[in-house]
Amino acid sequence: MDRLIRGERSKLMGKIRGRDTKIERALYDQLTKMGLEYQVRDIEGKPDYAHREAKVAVFIDGCFFHVCPEHCSIPKTNTGFWLKKFIRNSNRDLLVNAKLMASGWKVVRVWGHTVKKEPERALEIIGTIIKARMLIINIIGRVPAGGIDYL
Q: How many whole angstroms separate alpha carbon 71 and alpha carbon 132?
């Protein structure tokens, strides 16, 4: 049973931001210094950050809506709705990953808890991926094949 009445729950859920979240903004200064753009809307899946030249797309995935195995728990109320929502989100993420990788993009998905607990580690790995791809571009003259990393 939900502790909030329907209108209160709706108001609370309406406050959850879909973009420009605190977690996304936490890495903003450091990632933009690495040459990544913030909130890129013209790339498949609208990544939170993207480095166009190295073709690296970074998504900061919140633990609840992207079903983090460590932190997500299924709500006890309206369970059917939430299960469908989680499945839709997971399927969309998989489709976006596949489309980006097929066009040569490296996809980096970072859990929100990683940004909160280990922001330096996330930055180091993202930076290393970009440097490695740029090195390969300089050596072979083209963008290497796509792929995916989860942090």
A: 31
